[in-house]
Amino acid sequence: MSLPRRRPPRPTPSLLAIRKPNSRRATVVLVTLSVLVPLGLWWGLSVSGLIQPARYLPTPAATFAAALEMAGSGQLFTDAWASLQRVLLGFGLAIAVSVPLGIAMGTFRAGQSLFEPVIGLLRYLPASAFIPLLIIWLGLGEPSKVALLFIGTVFFNTLMTADAVRGIPTSLIDVSYTLGARTGEVVRKVVIPHSLPGMIDAVRVNAAAAWNFVVVAELIAADSGLGYRIVRLQRFSQVDRIFAVLAVIALIGLAIDLLLRLTRDRVGRWT
Amino acid sequence: MIKLELADVGMRFGDVVALEGINLAVPRGSFVCVVGASGSGKSTLMSLVAGLTRPTSGEVRLDGYPVTMPGPDRGLVLQSGAVFPWRDVERNVGFGLELLPRLSKAERSERVLRYLEAVGLNEFRHALPKHLSGGQRQRVAIARALIVEPEVLLLDEPFGALDVQTKEDMQLLIRKVWRDTGTTVLMVTHDVEEAVFLGQRVVVLASRPGRVAADLSVPLGDHRDLSVKREDSFLALRAKIEDLVRAFHRTGGQGPRQVVAARSYTDSAARTRSAELSPPEPVEVTRPDSRT
Predict the structure, then answer these.
(1) Are B244 and B185 a contacting pair, CB within 8 Å?
(2) Do B22 and B58 contact (CB within 8 A), yes or no?
(3) Residue in B75, B76, B84 nearest the CB of A174
(4) How does pLDDT run across B116-127, given as a tens digit for each residue?
(5) What pLDDT is attached to residue A54?
(6) Which residue of B has its CA nearest to A191?
(7) What is the helix (H) or strand (E) element at residue B257, kind and residue range?
(8) A199: alpha, beta or left, given left = phi > 0 and alpha = psi -120 to 50?
(9) Chain B, 162-201: which have a CB under 8 Å from a chain A CB?
(10) Backbone angles phi, psi at B184, to 5 degrees
(11) Tell me: domain A82-227, CATH 2.30.29.30, correct?
């Protein structure tokens, strides 16, 4: 018996061909749509009169005007800088702890046995669940906010760093030993350089988380920062200004990501 | 004089016996090739000689001293090349020298240049490995291993992933390196032609467990070029060794008769080791029927 046959496939439209590059024009159109469509929906909805009272959904223009006004008074910069400082401190501490820990876990089986079980467990505890505890232990000031950022990012960054380190081919390590390298030298001259791009990737992913957590931390108790500003504005239902702050949060996040991506591309030129 | 010696070396991984009773002596300055089908423990053998793993029985000796850990006296070149992708050619080759105390930067780069010259990579010295061809990467790996002046050069299927033309270029290169430096070379390969062309001796490993099945000297003289591969004596020896590799390759589902025959041949080969060798009859007897 002969095998059943299928009709030949219809030619695939080039936009739906798997992993095939699109034309430059198609790419530009798609990227533009991805920005303009949500913006258009927002604008359409805000001028339609469907949302009442209208100030609950400000138009893009009103949001922009509010942002300019807040920027003019300097308030926006003070808040952004306050949030940024907390991220730099909290996430910076998390990096300082998680990178050596992750390298130890990814390099030595002993490190993995020692740290992986406890970190694998701790990372499932949501950082925001620690807020009450942190307030009890550290008060309402800066330390509790920095600690929240730290807790929110340190475990993930450790595990992701360890993964990046584990990606090194054993053959590179073997060859290093046969060239006379000692264990410390293998770590310093082979393991770390090889996993550096992966480590920066991990930092990039977790920087986004850190930026989220700082806003959460400031929603609770703060006297400055972008999250704090949103809470303040809520009391007076200044939705246009809340929108402006949200836009600023998004833009700063994007800038951080871009910066880290450029760093990664520079460091990982050899990949 | 014996440079490298494997004395009754055995290696098991749990219940799996990878190598059993390996005895092998590599004289100083010689070029010995080890051939065997997959599963014959060729790479395990290399990693034992390199000192990356310790044998579960027996001993590997270098100049009479037991090998306990990897070191720059045994340079290793792997099939994958294992060049450091983030280092350019120059810094790959210079890696071993960076580890040495009291070696000035000038001295180091002078040596690097000399070895780059030797493997013909001078103009690529600032290139990253990702921009190199497979053959060029192996050249980097060879220069990197040679620059620390190893007592023994260990080649673990170094040209296995290369196309035929590149492979022959590399074979000529490694012959030249061997003749110029006078270093001792132990090479593992599944390519019998390569083993006969390069080796002064070819050792055949039987598989599961890996044992020395035969040890043949190659009567071709030390001046060889590629044309030797077409000579009758070369072809005859190559055919003979290929038959041996087949005969001692135990694949799943083969009958016990085969195994017994292979074992008895191993013993006779072991007795006549390093003698001229060797009875081809058992080869005919043990050739797998399924292959016809």
Answers:
(1) no
(2) yes
(3) B76
(4) 998 999 999 999
(5) 82
(6) B84
(7) helix B256-271
(8) alpha
(9) none
(10) -85, 135
(11) no
Query: Per-residue pLDDT averaged across A142-162, rounded?
Result: 94
The whole-number average pLDDT for the span B101-106 is: 90
Q: Tell me the domain boundaries of chain A.
A: 82-227
Q: Which residue from B minimizes the CA distance to A268?
A: B86
Asked if residues A169 and B129 have their Cβ atoms less than 8 Å apart, the reply is: no
Q: Measure Cα distances from A181 to A186, A194, B33, B86, B241 in Å.
A: 6, 16, 27, 17, 38
Torsion sign over Cα B48, B51, B55, B59: positive
Please tell me the predicted confidence (pLDDT) of residue B39: 78
Residue with more model confidence, B97 or B276: B97
- Chain A residues within an 8 Å CB radius of B145: 178-179
Write down all domains in chain B, each with its CATH number in brackets. 2-73+150-291 (3.40.50.300)
Return the DSSP state at B119: T
Predicted confidence (pLDDT) at residue A106 exceeds the cutoff of 70: yes
Whole-angstrom Cα distance, residue B204 to residue B35? 5
CA distance B128 to chain A (A): 7
Yes or no, beta carbons of B52 and A190 under 8 Å apart:
no
Alpha-carbon distance B207 to nearest alpha carbon in chain A (angstroms): 24
| ipTM score assigned to the predicted complex | 0.83
* Percent of the residues in chain B that have a pLDDT greater than 70, as a whole number: 85
- A167-170, Cβ contacts within 8 angstroms, sequence gap of 24 or more: A167/A194, A167/A195, A167/A198, A168/A194, A168/A195, A169/B80, A169/B82
Q: Report the candidate in B289, B237, B284, B292 with the shortest Cα–Cα distance to residue B261.
A: B284
Residue B266, pLDDT > 70, answer no
Residues forming a β-bridge with B156: B78, B188
* B78:A171 CB<8 A: yes
Query: Hey, are the CB atoms on A169 and B95 less than 8 Å from each other?
Result: no
The token pair that represents B41 in the structure block: 């423990």
Alpha carbons B61 and B4: distance in angstroms, whole number: 6
pLDDT for A160-208, tens place per residue? 999 999 999 999 999 999 999 999 999 999 999 999 999 999 999 999 9
Amino acid identity of residue B223, one-letter, is H
Print burial letters for A2-36: b (CB count within 10 Å at least 16), e (below 16): eeeeeeeeeeeeeeeeeeeeeeeeeeeeeeeeeee
Interatomic CA distance for residues B238 and B254, integer angstroms: 25
